Amino acid sequence: MWSIDPILTVIAGLITxxxxxxxxxxxxxxxxxxxLGQFLFRDFTVLKVMLTAIVVGGLGIWTMVSVGMLxxxxxxxxxxxVAPVILGGLIFGVGMAVLGYCPGTGVAALGDGSRHVxxxxxxxxxxxxxxxxxxxxxxxLLKAGELTVHGSNKITIADAAGVSPWWIMAAVTAVAAIVxxxxxxxxxxxxxxxxxxxxxxxxxxxxxxxxxxxxxx
Length: 217
Prior knowledge:
The structure is a single chain. By secondary structure, this protein is an all-alpha fold. The chain has 2 domains: 1-69 and 163-189, no CATH class; 77-155, no CATH class. It is 66% helix and 0% strand. It contains 10 helices and no strands. The model is unreliable at 197-209 and 211-217 (pLDDT under 50).
C-alpha cells in the first residue's frame, strides 16, 4: 500500500474537486434545463455523465487495489440496509426533480452563477443538520432490511455475487456501452423528426429562458 502525506491528500482533494466542478460545467449538467430534460426523457446528458463516472471510477478504484495503491479495507463501504436506501433514494429523487439539481450539480451551478439554486443549497444544509440530530431517534429505521455476507454488512455487489469485482466491472461496462448505443440511436431519431411549429406570439418557456441565460453567461 502506498503512503500519502495528509497535506498532499488535502491538496489532491481540492484539485479533484476543481476538476470535478469544471467537468460538470463543461458537460452542462449545472443547468436546470439539462437536468429537467433528463427527467422528461428529452436530454440524456445526465445519464451519459453518470454512466461515464461509474465506469471510470469503478475501473480506477479496482485498478488501484490491484496495483497495491489502495487496500480493500480502506474503501468506505457503507453498511447494506435495504429499507433506508429505498426510502432515501425516493426522497433524493423527488428533491432532485423539484429543485432541478442534486447536491453536486447544485453547488457547481452556484459557482456557474445560477442564483436560483441558493434556496436549494440552504435546504440541503438544513436537511443534513436535521438528519444528524434525528439519527439517534431513527436508529431502528436506518438499520432495517440488513444484508450480510459472511457475517459482514459492509459488502459490495461482487461480495454478494461471490465473484471477482472485475466481472462486475465488465458487466457494468457492457451495459453502459449498450445504453450509450441506444441513446445515440434515440437522439438520431429525434434529430430526423420534423420541427414543431409555434405561433409567432408564443412566449418563451422557463426552460427556454434558462437555456438562453446559460448560453449568455
